[in-house]
Amino acid sequence: MRIDFHTHVIPKDLPNLAEKYGGKWPVLRQTCACGANILVEGKVFREVTDQVWSPTKRIQDMDREGVDIQVLSPIPVTFSYWAPVDAALEMAQLQNDFISETVQENPGRFAGLGTVPMQDTKTAIKEMDRCVHELNLCGIEIGTNVNGENLDAPDFLEFFEMAEKWNVPLFIHPWETMAKDRTPRHNFMYTVGMPSETALAAASLVWSGVMEKFPNLRVCFAHGGGSFPYILPRLDQGWKVWPHLRLTTQPPSHYVHNFYFDSLNYDPLNVNYLIDRFGHEKVMMGSDYPFLLREIPPGKVIDEMTDLTELQKRMILGENALRFLNIKGINDGTKNTDSREETAKSGI
User: Fold this and answer.
1) CATH number for the domain running over 82-346
2) 338 Cβ contact partners less than 8 Å away, ≥ 6 residues apart
3) pTM for this one?
4) Which strands, in side-by-side order, build the sheet including 110-115?
5) Cis peptide before 290 (omega within 30 of 0)
6) Helix (H, G, I), strand (E, B) or coil at 26
7) Given this model, what pLDDT does residue 336 score?
């Protein structure tokens, strides 16, 4: 069972909310039958192919590349945290409905993550409730910051509290990256900005006490956690030498037991580092399909690692994702509402 945890979709018939509301809404404009541009404020943000909206095309690619299940998540540019909450909710619901329908129409091939308007906690919680309890989505994707606020802002505590209470796994993906004025050249936003942004998000959760308050909250960080795994010892050292800044009873590394990471860092050395620091149970294969920086075929680096056991490979390539997403029925897609109890019994 091979599960690609990190893939992105967008509805082909996404309404033009820029015409309806004004502002920097992403707009999908087809350029041909099999391609389109995502426009933001009239400028091309990203060129895409029909892989990004067509389940048929995706399944063809999955069959060719040996992927059994893709986990579908929105493209981060659609988060729209900057927008008025009612309009942002409309954008979120359009995508959540599309992802849910795609999963239902293709049983056994897709699982889905929803999105919520994080700029308003009450609305975000209500839409998370709809996603997991009505649409049967497996989790929620959120950005690394909300309009410049790190994820440890007090406004978000109730959201994390409810995610823990409802056992909703969160996928944290970089967007609106730091140092935007310094990273346009060389596409450094993608190769340097995003990993640094992800590290800041993860550091905010462990340093601030969010993970101490919600010890059963489970989060996965995109792109192998960015640079976070490598700066974690530095965070611990900061906690040690600056006691006046401490907000937790233990150093930051104490609170990473529920951190998961996709495997998308392209190099066996880096994947081995993730495994050594966090355990093979916390790494999930992810490719960033269908974008240019994706790993082709998904799981290529894992397959090439000769120092992993077959059990470890099997877990990273699929079983860890099933556990993280609370999925117990592979063929029928039913969710495992008792996964926390089973995980506790298994000792993982």
Assistant:
1) 3.20.20.140
2) none
3) 0.94
4) 3-9, 69-74, 110-115, 139-143, 170-173, 219-221, 259-262, 283-284
5) yes
6) strand
7) 45
